[in-house]
Amino acid sequence: xxxxxxxxxxxxxxxxxxxxxxxxxxxxxxxxxxTVELLSGKISLGSDIVEVIDxxxxxxxxxxxxxxxxxxxxxxxxxxxxxxxxLNATQIERQLSLLLQLKQYNLNMVVLLNMADxxxxxxxxxxxxxxxxxxxxxxxxxxxxxxxxxxxALQAVTKALRYTTPGMAExxxxxxEHDTQIExxxxxxxxxxxxxxxxxPDNLTTQLDHLTLHPWLGLPIFFGIMYLLFQGIFFFxxxxxxxxxxxxAWLREAALNPITAGWPSLLRGLLxxxxxxxxxxxxxxxxxxxxxxxxxxxxxxxxxxxxxxxxMDALMAKLGLDGRSFVMLLMGFGCxxxxxxxxxxxxxxxxxxxxxxxxxxxxxxxxxQVFVFIAAxxxxxxxxxxxxxxxxxxxxxxxxxxxxxxKRHLPNNEPFVLELPPYRFPTLRQMILRGxxxxxxxxxRASKFIIIGVVLVWLLTHLPTSxxxxxxxxWAGHIGAWLDPVFSPIGITAELTxxxxxxxxxxxxxxxxxxxxxxxxxxxxxxxxxxxxxxxQAYSFMLFTLIYTPCLSTIATLRSESKSNGFMLLSLGWSLxxxxxxxxxxxxxxxxxxx
Amino acid sequence: MNxxxxxxxxxxxxxxxxxxxxxxxxxxxxxLQALGFRVGKRIELIRKASFSGPLQVRxxxxxxxxxxxxxxxxxxxxx
Lengths: 595, 79
Fold this sequence. Notes:
The complex is a heterodimer.
Chain A: E1 2-8, H1 14-22, E2 27-29, E3 38-45, E4 48-54, H2 66-77, E5 82-88, H3 92-103, E6 109-114, H4 116-121, E7 125-126, H5 128-135, E8 139-141, H6 150-160, H7 170-174, H8 181-193, E9 194-195, H9 204-212, H10 218-259, H11 265-283, H12 286-301, H13 304-317, H14 323-331, H15 336-342, H16 349-358, H17 365-378, H18 381-406, E10 417-420, H19 428-462, H20 475-482, H21 484-487, H22 494-505, H23 508-518, H24 522-532, H25 535-547, H26 552-562, H27 565-592
Parallel strand pairs in A: 1-4, 1-5, 5-6, 6-8
Antiparallel strand pairs in A: 2-3, 3-4, 7-9
Chain B: E1 6-7, E2 16-22, H1 26-34, E3 42-48, E4 55-59, E5 62-66, H2 68-71, E6 74-78
Antiparallel strand pairs in B: 1-6, 2-3, 2-6, 3-4, 4-5
C-alpha cells in the first residue's frame, strides 16, 4: 500500500486537510522508530488504496522539539511515497524555509498553499505557476476549510503517486547541517511569484484583540466567557445525560432482564449489575463529552486559547506552568479526561507532566454530584452552597500546592514563544468531525479499563456468594475493615470506605454505591447518612473524595498521555497521600477544636 | 538611538524596530527563525500583558507571543 504523509508547520490546517481527505475515518497507529501515536486513514485515490498519515506540525526539520524529532525519525524509518507539504499562504514568506529543508531530503512532494482565501484578504497575491516553475515542485492554492481548489489538488496528488519515490541517499538522511542558502533561495522564489503588502490592513482581528487583550478588561472578559461555556455545557448536557441514562435503563428493563431471566444469578448479576450498569453510567457521560469538545473546538479553532494564554501567563509562570496550563485546568472543572488530552498542545514534556499532575485536582462535574448530594443531606440549604463553594477553593489550593511542590522537579526550560493566529470561525463540519474524533478516542481508550474496573468492583462486593451484597462479609467489606486503621483517623466509616472503592472507578457510582450499601435510596439515604455521620465526618469524606483520585478514566488517560506507568503511579500516590493528610488535618483539627 | 544596545523589552506598544541580533541558544534561535525572527527584519511591538506578562509582537503577517526573558535576547534598533 502506498503511503502519503502530511507535513507542515503548526496552524497550517494540516489536520483540517487530513479530516477532509479521510472523512474522519482515522485510526491511531504506532510507527517504527517513534513512540508517539499518529493518526492515519485509508482512502482510495484513483485505482489505489492509499494510507494518509497526519504528522505533527513542525517549524524546522532540524529542530529540537519532541515533534520535530518524531517527524525526522518517521521520515527516516518510513519513507513515504509522497509528502504533501501544507503551507499557510498568509505566511508564505517564512514557511518556505520548511519546504526548502524538506526539498533537500529528495522526497516525492506536492505543495498545497492553504488558506488561499485568507491570503487574498490580506492583499497577498501568489502566482502558483511561477512558483511551481522556480521550485520544480507542483504547487496548488486551496482552502482546506471550505474545499476550494481541493479537487485539483487531489488530482495532482493522485498523479504524483504514480512516480516512484527517488529514495533517500544515506548522506541526505543523516544530514543535519545548517542551511545558509535557504534565505537567498526564499528571496529568489518569492521575488516574482508573491507580493505581500508592507503593512497589514487593520482588520477584525486587530479590533477584537483591542478588547479581548485589554490590560484591564481582558481577564474579566475571559472569565465571563469561561463561565458561559460551563453553563452552556451543563445546560445542554445534563438533560441529554439523563435521557441517555434513561435509555439504558429502559433497554435493560425491556430487553436484557427478560432475556437473561433464566440465567444463573451470579452470571446475571455480573453482566447486568456489574458490566452493563458500569458501562451505562460512563456512556451517559458521552453527551457532556461531545458538547465539551464542541465548545473546546470553538475556543481553540477561533484562536481564543492563545489569547487566554497571553492573559494568564504572568500568574502561571510563578507556579512553573504557563498560560495554556491554566486554560486546561479550567477545562478540568468540566471533566479531567479531555483536559488532560488538551495538554497535547504543549511541547515541553516537563511542562506537560506538571500540568497533567495539577489537572486531576480540578473539581469535575462527577465529583460535584457527590458533593451536592452529601452537602444537601448534612447541611442546611444556606450552608450547603457555601460548603460546595469551599470545596472549589480546596480544589484550587490543591492544584497550586502541587504545582509549587513539583515545579522544581519538572523544570520548564522551554521558552514560551507562541504564535497568535488571527481569529477564525470553524465551520460546522469541522466542529462535528472534531467532536466525533475525540469521542471515538475516549470510548476506544477508556472502554477496556472501565469494564475491567466495574467487573472487579462487582466481584469484590458480591463474593463470597454467602455474604449480603456490599455487606461487611464480602471481600470489599473485609478490605473496608482492613483499611479501618487508615480511614478511622480521618473519620471515614467502613461503609464510606466501600463507597470510596467504588469511587475509584468513577465518582458517578459513589452515591449509587451508598444506596446499595445502605439498601436505601433518595431521601431515605440522605436521612440515614445524617443519622450516622456528623458534619465533620461528612466534610472530611468530601475532602478525601475531592483529592484522592478523579476516576479510572482519568488514570487511564494519565497513563496513555504520559506513556509512563511511573508517572501515573506518582500522580495516584501523590493525590492519595495529599487527600489523607488534608482530611487528617481537617478531621483531627475540628475534633480538637471541640466540633 | 542608532548604535545603543536595546532589546525588544525596551520598545513600547506601537513602536517598530529592526532586529539586529538574536542572542540565544540554538534551540530557541531555530524556533524564532522559523517564526520569522531574522536579522534585518522589521518587528512591531503590539502590546504587553499586565503583571509583567508576555509581549505580543508582529513580524510580517505573523503575530507572536513571547515572554520578557525571550524578548531580552533579541537586540533591536528602533525605527
